[in-house]
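Need Gfo/Idh/MocA family oxidoreductase's 3D structure for a figure. Predict it.
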Amino acid sequence: MSHDQNPTAPRPASAASGTGDPAVVPQFAPVPAGRPRRRYAVVGTGHRAGMYVDAITGAHADVAELVAWCDSNPTRMAYYDGVVGQALGLDGPAGLPTYGPDGLEAMVLEQRVDVVVVTTPDFTHADLVARAQAAGADVVVEKPLTTTDVGCRTIADSVKSTGRDVVMTFNYRYSPRNSSLREVIASGEIGDVTSVHFEWVLDTVHGADYFRRWHRQRENSGSLLIHKSSHHFDLVNWWLGDVPARVFASAGLRFYGAENAAARGMGERPARGTGVVGDPWSFDLTADPRLQALYLDAEHHDGYLRDRDVFSEGITIYDNMALVVDYARGATMTYSLNAHAPWEGYTVAVNGTKGRAELTVVERGVVIIDDRGHVVLDPSATPATQAAKLAAEGIRPEAEHLIVQKHWEPAREWPIPAGVGGHGGGDAILLMDVFRRDLRLGDDPLGRAAGYRDGLAAVAVGIAANESLRTGQAVRVADLDLGDDLS
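Structure prediction for Gfo/Idh/MocA family oxidoreductase:
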């Protein structure tokens, strides 16, 4: 039941500050004296759970406390229990009660859980959200909300019947570069939006990683069009203040997988990456103590292999995707995602009746291989790889720029304030909203907090895209029956 978020994403320029710019960091009232902390349980103790565990035991320990774990894998729960014990200054593990997936309802009742944090594989989200709400808890859920129209209806029905809350953690909304583009559009600076072009490229570190893990099978993740792209589709929905109406998609598995490897004459491949030397496509779990503890040391319980070969059989997701999306108020988006690029980042161009805004982000300008044939995650570790990185950055430096140009005027750079933490400086700001939003002083003019309807609108594009790929036709979102009227 672990939700493994990619641990290799680089720290961007907008995350350089330790405190963040007041323009994007909300202000919160002090915690009232004597107010009890909200009781949280984490369901799914994979890599991504760490962000919430660290927040609850660290910056937000005054308003939140962890009271239980729920997972099918005892080794992963034990790992995080040790993390919490250390954070609390104990001599050993925290000793929090543990439950299997079937014990979710008992956990909520017995541990008096206020909020369940769901960080499990995507296809399990809908059932867990509905069960947690029916048991009496609110829910914080990682993106994507769910992977199918059935899952959407399950969550929509649950919210209506229980009245319980669902917080979607769309952390990219909180990235200052993305909220700055929202500010440009909302201000009317470029007029009414007529079209958006959005290209996202994942490099051969980050992109390849999805083809090693449970994401590689469409029934688990809904493909990258849902697992990864729901981030991107939510951004466009939020930037435009609009909802998707029609989707046409084209996609294919053209780089990873056994057939593509054979066509390129790659020869025999190792079944998994751990222990392999000299192959940049292999991922050795022993190189990262956290991943070794969460996966290699835990796989004897459930057989989950975190380091499968990206060129093996059984991959059913795509590595090249392109969409045309019509929006309810008339704008059109062209979108592409590539998962095997030599660099990582994205470009967004927003055309309006008064001009154009262009956001360009390079998150990692080059993937470097060391003298042992391994991918270098930290190029500053040795002088040689640092020199290679600096040489590459002369052409494609890690940077972010937001350019605005109105008709008959020169282009100008729009300032991007400093954020805090990962995901473009958005993670730490998101967590403030997740754990202390009731203490926020004033409304957020950027409207960054997301609920389940935002989650529905984001996955609607991916669900419609998958249907379009199946039928070869454009798909109207209204025909999907997602359990709620997005318009």
